[in-house]
Amino acid sequence: MSGMVERNGAGTIISHVGLIFGIAIVCFPIYLAIVASTVEQKDIVSPPLPLLPGGHFIENYKKALLSGVNIPVWRMLVNSTIMAMGIAIGKIVISLLSAFAIVYFRFPLRTFFFWMIFLTLMLPVEVRIVPTFEVIANFGMLNSYTGLILPLIASATATFLFRQFFMTVPDEIAEAARVDGAKPMRFFFDILLPMSRTNIAALFVILFIYGWNQYLWPLLITTDPEMNTIVMGIKQMFPSGDDLADWPVIMATALLAMLPPVLVVVFMQNLFIKGLVDAEK
Amino acid sequence: MEKRVTFKGWLLPLLLITPQVVVTAVFFFWPAGQAIYQSAFIPDPFGLKSQFVGWGNFQFIFTDPYYLASFKTTAIFSLSVTIVSMGVALWLALMADRIIKGAATYRTLLIWPYAVAPAIAGVLWLFMFNPRIGVVSWYLDKIGYDWNHVLNSNEAMLLVVLASAWSRISYNFLFFLAGLQSIPKSLVEAAAMDGAGFWYRFRTIVFPLLSPTTFFLLVVNIVYAFFETFGVIHTITAGGPQQATNIMVYKVYSDGFVGQDLGSSAAQSVVLLFVVGLLTILQFRYIEKKVHY
Predict the structure, then answer these.
(1) Of A36, A271, A277, B49, which residue is 20 to 30 A from B64 by alpha carbon distance?
(2) Given the DSSP bridges, would you call strands B50-52 and B41-43 parallel, antiparallel or unpaired?
(3) Which residues are within 8 A (CB) of A247 and not within 5 positions of it... i.e. 6 or more apart?
């Protein structure tokens, strides 16, 4: 693959230098957060911030995790984990089922349901916040995991992804299953599901990050700090008015908040990229 | 596209599709319908009864200077975020595409910020530019620039644009890199042998062949800037100062939940629904086109 265009020496060096420069810019805000989470408040209030990490790593993270500002961060991490897992698993389950129905059956209102799901393709929760909030409040789901998860599990994206994948499964396989007298659900669990493994995993990675990073929705429906998720809880750690924020603890929390999704992206990079590209098809 | 081989029966598929249809109906169509319905009413301050006003709320928002200003703010904000983020990402992708050794390492180092939530990105940038303790604002002060985004509208806008663009670079980078790598190397090499320089090749071969990716990213980034940047705005400026960063999505939230002006907020939701509809059509066009290639 390597032709003369890439081998061109000066160009390659320029590219390396440019990339390192770019990476430095992209990573700088996070590097600063790491520094800030390892120093004391007094190092921060008398700028400039030292450019090397300090020695208060354990102290700050312990304070954040065990006492936090309004609520210990470990509690918010638990809430975020439940929400992210709930959204990812919920979306995948209902999408697998509905895609199976749409692809492998002919039934009344099939086209109607198909378009109904399709219409939600790009209807983010942000545009219908007030009425959705009212629905959840009427169901008595404020400050509950169900309220956090349920409104976010309907999405056309996952359904379409599975639909597309099911379409590529050779007809002969379903035909053979039918001839053998396999019931539809048998076919679904024994054949279709194992074949969709990689797609499910890739989608899970994307949906986990999506769920983890939700902000507006938890902000609206979790008025009880006990139910705060970590991404929305950080803002709540800033004092109202002119008091100085507890920056070392806030920055430690910010890093704890990004750690799970970052680990997912780095260690499941190939699945992540597949999921990202598939989801946008 | 339809399957030739299907299973018999209609009760089972209806049961299978029910969970998704119910969730979609309850949490998408019902609220969207409510938004349209509420947009025609003004609830009294006690929430006891509503008065029908027809187009009144729309007439109100479209003559409200704050709402019209919010339109303009949203346009400036979305375009800036899209251009900055795509520009930086394209530049990085062009360089990464030329590299053979260490390409995987560079990719890893550039994609992980994707996992950082916009709200967290907001907190990180707020920390750097905090007028009192921020590192960047301290160095700016040393070179004689007094940074204060809490008071200065333009600085506030610049800061939310930078934070929002930053958290989108990884995504754009990945798609640009994939797009670049799908361009046949033989084409670029043939041009290079004919003596075409890097910029000439970029202008005449690479960029045109990259246009489907660019168009796709353009739409996706505008959608991102419209909706998903709520966290950035909320953590950094809360729409201020003097509404300078009050983008439409933020205004729906602040009018509806903070200001309790439900009629106006609902009308604004309907306008946003309309915008989303337009963007969906645009994206659908793109999908259609890609199928034809």
Answers:
(1) B49
(2) antiparallel
(3) A36, A41, A44, B127, B133
Separate counts of helices (H) and strands (E) for chain A: 17, 0
Answer yes or no: is B115 within a domain.
Answer: yes
Q: Are A45 and B130 in contact (CB under 8 A)?
A: no
Cβ of residue A13 closer than 8 Å to a chain B Cβ: no
- Among B29, B30, B110, the residue with its CB nearest the CB of A26 is B110
pLDDT averaged over 10-residue windows placed end to end, chain B, 293 residues: 78 93 90 84 71 84 90 95 96 88 85 92 93 89 89 94 95 92 85 82 87 87 90 91 91 85 85 83 66 38
CA distance A83 to A77: 10
Question: Which of B14, B96, B235 has its CB closest to that of A235?
Answer: B235
Q: Report the pLDDT value the prediction gives residue A55, as an integer from 0 to 100.
A: 83
Q: Does position A3 have pLDDT exceeding 50, yes or no? A: no
Exposure on the CB side of residue A160, measured as CA atoms within 13 A: 17
CA A102 – CA A194 distance, rounded (Å): 19
CA dihedral A232, A205, A128, A233 (to 10 degrees): 0
A24-49 mean pLDDT: 88
User: Distance (Å, rounded) from C-alpha B104 to C-alpha B61?
Assistant: 50
Shortest CA gap B82–chain A (Å): 16
The interface residues of chain A toward chain B in range 185-204, judged by CB-CB distance below 8 A, are 185, 187
CA distance A259 to A237: 18
Taking CA atoms, B203 is separated from A15, B82, B91, B197, B211, in Å, by 18, 20, 14, 10, 11
Q: Which of B138, B121, B118 is nearest to B129 (CA)?
A: B138
Nearest C-alpha in B relative to A212: B117
Its domain, for residue B203, covers 55-292
Q: Tell me A189's DSSP state.
A: I
For residues A128 and B32, is the Cβ–Cβ distance under 8 A? yes
What are the phi and psi torsion angles at A123 (to 5°)?
Answer: -110, 80
Rounded CA gap, A94 and A149, in Å?
13
ipTM value for the complex:
0.89
The burial class, CB within 10 Å (0-12 / 13-18 / 19+), for A138 is exposed
Taking alpha carbons only, the member of A218, A256, A219, A225 closest to residue A71 is A225
Overall number of domains in chain B: 1
